[in-house]
Amino acid sequence: MQLVKKEIRTNNHKTSKHVQLTIDEDFNVSDSKQDIDKIIISQGQVVIDDTEPMVDRIRVKGHVSYKILYSVAKAEGELDSMNGSVPFEETINVDELLPSYDTSVSCDMEDLNISMIHSRKIAVKGLIQMKIDVTEQDVIEGAESIENGENIQCMYKKVPYTRTVADQKDVFRVRELISIPQSKPNIRNLIWHSVTVNEVETKPLDNKIDIRGELEVFLIYRAEEQMPLQYLNLDIPFSGEVDCVGSMEGMTADIGVMLGETQLVVEPDEDGEERVLNLEANLELEIRIYQEEELDLLGDMFSTTACINVETESFDYESLLTRNNAKTRIVERLKRKENQAGILQVCYVEGNVKVDDTRTTEEGIVVDGAVEVRIVYIAEDDTRPMNSLTGFLPFTYLVEAKDMSPDTIYHIRPTLEQISSIMLGSDEVEIKAVVNLSIIAFARKKCKTITDMSVSDIDYEKMNQLAGIIGYMVQEEDTLWNIAKRYYTSIDTIRKVNQLERDDLTVGQKLLIVKG
């Protein structure tokens, strides 16, 4: 007789680590740019260029790309912009890390402060939040049945677990040529543009991922001389697919979509007029696809004619606990500061979600965070025709999830689904936002599987000491299986002798055991 084995592949979450990195650099304004009077808008984004896992540490290399919109000194009503990047490289200690482990690094720009040193120099300071997740792919061979086994009693068990089918990063590129509306004048000089991604939907298909959503583009430009500054909002839908080997429709997906590097170039149309925008945007995808499976394993065995000894090995595995998309609505008011010009008209509003803290409760996961909001508006001050208003909209929301425990593994992907603004006067704006909190949670479990066995002659002396018929009273934790194994009989024999219609036993129940 011999065991029939199967290969079991599981995920073993080893560790997570949160670290903070700071950037602090000064930059000169290039000779091609005009002097700075006042910074109106500043933006920054963290980009991971490379990671190198090592023993108990990881090297992370990346950069922070930034850009600013500013009013020009000694030129009333004139705007200009500049951009640049701040490189960083850090080696971070991570206990239990080995180069062979799967390592995921994600970063968020927690805080960015760009200020003037003087009209030809700026200071860029920021705080980067970095999260490192380490997972080991375990492989073990466990018995699922036995071949050529006579007089063998076998107990099987079903183990529901979640297998990782795909874990990859990819880039989906959006390339679009957009003509500006006929109601808008030609573009003489593009001053500023901002791109955000909204309403993204992803879906696993056979060996690929379907992705669709919308890019919102805001731009400020100078038209013909003597004309006021122009601004424009454009919504650009996109759709497409990326390859994902092993993915199938209906599988569970955990997919993060983040806007990466973007480029917007003005080109002439067929008539030679500067009215076409050439947009290139990279959407960085973090893809994890899971398949819920049920392992059929051999749990135990014994024989009435031989002594069987089994060797077992424990393995850790994850089982999908919940998948939930929760939404919370936020309505808040933002007021301009006393030193800011009054609001004449809102041009654009954008935001991004920051999660400050999460904690598990019996009801689910409590998420504390805030929506960072930026409003660009036409100001009442003609010398500085555009200004911005920033603020934070705090929120606390309970994402319902049953059976949570302190060692539950969960991921939360916060996205801003909608944001809009209503002017309440020259001093105040009402913001309405919808935050989507996508959560996937796994229970950590442990299981034993039979890995080997040996067979020896039965101990007949011990067996002969047992009476042929035994009166037995059921004890706590007794099952038909362990009673049959103890007295060298079979479950079917116990059922037949005692006329049992079901396998459930009660403490104190009396049974007749006929030795096999």
Task: Give an account of the 3D structure.
The chain is mostly beta strands and 516 residues long. It has helices at residues 460-464, 480-486, 491-498, and strands spanning 2-28, 36-54, 57-72, 79-93, 102-118, 121-147, 152-179, 189-205, 208-222, 230-243, 252-268, 274-303, 306-335, 343-360, 364-379, 386-400, 409-423, 428-457, 469-473, 510-514. The protein has a three-stranded antiparallel beta sheet, with no helix packed on it. Strands 2-3-4 form a three-stranded antiparallel beta sheet, with no helix packed on it. A hairpin with a 7-residue loop joins strand 9 and strand 10 (230-243). The longest helix is centred in the last third of the chain and has 8 residues, at 491-498. It is elongated and about 110 Å long.
